[in-house]
Amino acid sequence: MKNVTDSFVSSGHWPSAGSFGFNTDILATNPINLSVVIGVLIFFGKGVLSDLLDNRKLRIVNTIRNSEELRGRAVEQLEKARARLRKVEAEADQFRANGYSEIERDKLNLIQSTYKTLEQLENYKNETIYFEQQRAINQVRQRVFQQALQGALGTLNNCLSNELHLRTINANIGMFGAMKEITD
Predict the structure, then answer these.
(1) What's the pTM?
(2) pLDDT(160) > 90
(3) What's the pLDDT score for residue 7?
(4) Is-contact 136 60, C-beta < 8 A?
(5) Who wins on pLDDT, 84 or 164?
């Protein structure tokens, strides 16, 4: 780690106290910055991310199980409705002369209400799954960002020794002094 900090502090990479400049070589600076950020994210975020994903997976699986149970109940209700339909059809044969059209309407209403109930349950299941997925994604994003930020701050704090910190401050004071003399 000492070699890394020495390479950043060496006089060849820092402008002299009398001048100020920017490194405009994008090809030299961006890949280094990106590789450092990606390395920090991978190093500090992989354990937390896998734990979060495992927990979310369990929650989603439980939600799917609950939805399947709801679907099973809906199928049971459908079977009961079909049994009632068969019963109504038997009664319709008996009372055909008196109220055939009324019974037929009741039958269609019963079928329609059952299908509507099934559609509502299926929609509820799909909405619940989508909501849980979105919530999981948002939580994972937030946790990864927090972990990456904490890891980067920890790495910076570990890399900055008192001597390096004082040398950086003195170099910046010298640059500001030179800038003030130029503007005066």
Answers:
(1) 0.30
(2) no
(3) 45
(4) yes
(5) 84
